Amino acid sequence: MNTEPAPVSFENTANAFEYKSDKELKKAAFLFSSMGYSSLVKLGTRLTPWMIRAGFPVKGLIRETIFSQFVGGETLEETAAVAKKLGEYHVRVILDYGVEGGDEGEEGFDHAKSEFIRVIDYAATQPNIPLMSVKVTGFARMGLLETLDKAIKAGTGSLMKRYTKALEGLMEAEGEEWQRVIQRMQQVCRAGADRNVGVLVDAEETWIQDPVDVLTILMMEQFNRGRVVVYNTIQLYRWDRLGFLKDSYEAAEQRDFILGAKLVRGAYMEKERRRAEEMGYASPIQPDKAATDRDYDSGVAFCIEHIERVALIVASHNEESNLYAVKLMKGRGLPLSHPHIHFSQLYGMSDNITFNLAKAGCAVSKYLPFGPIRDVIPYLMRRAQENSSVSGQTGRELGLIRKEMKRRGM
Questions:
Q1: Strand pairing partners for 366?
Q2: What share of the chain is helix, strand, coil (3-state, %, to 5)?
Q3: 187 φ, ψ to 5°?
Q4: Backbone angles phi, psi at 170, to 5 degrees
């Protein structure tokens, strides 16, 4: 008798959209077809933030369209209904307090830290929310991060050696300010450790990423002993990140902690290339998509090869990369529900990947932002631009939705 598990397929739209009603499916079809018009998206992404700031009565329209597609709600409590529904299909939730970082001063940074802890406290009361995400720019001044990053990049040797040297060059006030950032991060990670909620540290732009990496490694060293609490986000559209992933693993071996690695392709490509060109330095971005894909899959393979000391989150909308991870797991005889391997996609996108992985028995989550409409507008505009600009993304989403509508006889 053949007990070989059925291969994972992302073509099954019955699984992918079982959680959506006919009405919700039609609304998604309308939204993705609208995103297919790049000129409309360009106009919308320029006008919408301005209209919100100017007080135009557009919040209701936004709430009923793009907001309901990509965001869990305006408050933590509103996310409960979404999390409950996802849980019925064995899909978990990564909560993301969707407020973008800004220079709000020490009081604002302390408030952001408290909000992150409030998310952790809430997640701990829910059966389906094992993880949440934080942005260091939520509780650290951009200017300080830039100063520290520049000093770290100017040094030689390992990242931690360069960091130690960079600290010596900070002015006294900056050093004290950085210590407050470390303390905020420790308080957030301590809350995660105490309440058994994982903390995913978001990636940032290259000119502030080094201090974020240092901070995350320090937190992993403190909290990832015998279990994983803290994860770093590694953007493989950067040509240097595969090497950084391997260096991070070496640090984990030397310092005896579990490396938490959330692998993504990346979020700031156009901005990074433009800045590099304007300022006359070599672009940190891969030369082409093929190079990004190659490094991404190499990163997945490296983590699975060293899974005893790595906790991996395959955070990707790329079908081939997800299938590759599953293939590697099966090849090593690992269960699809392995505690160190998790999959994740953004809420509102790639349901064919998420729900079919869940159906196969993989640990998989939706990344679920929440926050007031005014505050999550930057996130929503990025989703609109991404679906408009990523080659084939909108067409793929729309094709799957239409396939399911046809299956339902709609």
A1: 93, 345
A2: 60, 10, 30
A3: -65, -40
A4: -75, 145
Q: What is the pLDDT of residues 266-292, one digit of tens each?
A: 877 888 999 999 999 999 999 999 999
392-404, pLDDT tens digit by residue? Answer: 677 889 999 999 9
| Vertex 188 angle, CA 185 and 194, to 5° | 135
- Tell me how many degrees the CA angle 297-300-306 measures, rounded to the nearest 5: 140
HSE value, Cβ hemisphere, 13 Å, CA-based, for 126: 28
Backbone torsions φ then ψ of 259, nearest 5 degrees = -80, 120
Class of domain 73-376 as given by CATH? alpha beta
Half-sphere exposure of 347 (CA within 13 A, CB side): 28
Quickly tell me which residue has 């299909």 as its tokens: 89
* Helix (H) / strand (E) containing 261: strand 259-264
Closest to 374 measured CA to CA, from 71, 36, 43, 42: 71
pLDDT at 4: 53
Interhelix angle 206-223/241-255, nearest 10 degrees? 20
The pLDDT assigned to 41 comes to: 80
Burial status of residue 313 (CB atoms within 10 A of its CB: 0-12, 13-18, 19 or more): buried
Q: Is the pLDDT of residue 1 over 50?
A: no
Phi, psi for 98 (deg, rounded to 5): -80, 30
- Reported as a pLDDT band with limits 50, 70 and 90, residue 60 is confident
Q: Where are the beta strands (DSSP E) in 48-105?
A: 92-97
Range with lowest mean pLDDT among 80-84, 105-109, 226-230, 242-246: 105-109
